[in-house]
Amino acid sequence: MRIATFNVNGIGSRLPALLQWLEEKQPDVACLQELKAPQEKFPLEAINAAGYHAIWHGQKSWNGVAILSRTPPQEIGRGLPGDPEDEQSRYIEAVVGDVVIACLYLPNGNPAPGPKFDYKLKWFERLIRRGEQLLATGANVVLAGDFNVMPTELDVYKPERWGDDALFRPETREAFHRLVAQGWTDALRRMHPGEKIYTFWDYFRNAYGRDAGLRIDHLLLSPALAPALKAAGVDRDVRGREKPSDHAPTWVELDLGASKAGAAGSAAAARGKAAHADVSTDAANTAKAATKVPRKAPVKAALDAATKDAAEAPAEAPTKTSAKAPAKAAKNVATKVATKVPTKAATKAATKASAKS
User: Fold this and answer.
1) 105: annotated active-site residue
2) Which of 128, 211, 230, 309 has its CA 20 to 30 A from that of 185?
3) Count: domains in the chain
4) Residue 309: inside a domain, yes or no?
């Protein structure tokens, strides 16, 4: 199973580059960031024609995240819990097969210090709490996206020039290290220890040509999934094409069938059968952007609809991962994670209840 993350820097202007990469590499799952498009402007028809289902959380001009997959993703929720007033489109979660995919776009935070940097650090704290909750489910989980942090000096060209930047300040790196210390595996660094490897090159001063890059796009694997890691890399050549994003796609290759991770994920899915899905009310909206899933359906109905959609898909529809992870297992994992991890609306409801008491 190949899972990739790609900050497209505007899905409208970069759509041809995205489609070319999808055709060439054919990842099973692609997490996208910086869509820079409102919900209704997402190019679903083109994505479907490329052989992918999609869920997305758009926002006009800025932000925006999406999960593309060969089989219908079972959406868990959107919006990072912990701040009911945060309306920025930076986080979305789904299950593909028996793997929970969290696609994120962490705030840049510049200039630092200042309000934007404060928001970045608060967002990071919420992500750390979410990471802990996800690990508590025992499921196979991937945190994938643009984290806007270079964890070490090895991850930045000329680190002495970046000391005051929000992407490299000690507070930012410390937050990342605390997240990883929960038990996550930094997949790219695990497969390339000690190697200079970048995922981002600025548009200015011929940064790509000089290889003056940063490693800010990461894929973190839960302990259950880490044994399945077989390869990881960066499709660096994509950055050198015409009208490129300033990021390059970053990916991991997982062998679920040849490791204990597959068995652990299946066991987690089986245990999820006992979890009955009267999940939080916010989950009623989680499937509104998914292909062929009713906008107002509660989570259980939405997952049932997506499962039926997968079962009724025509023979020519992509089924690359279906044999490894049946839709029923995906539904069970999604239900388990949704019941154990409070959603944004649940947090908001709790806040209101507290205010009234």
Assistant:
1) yes
2) 211
3) 1
4) no
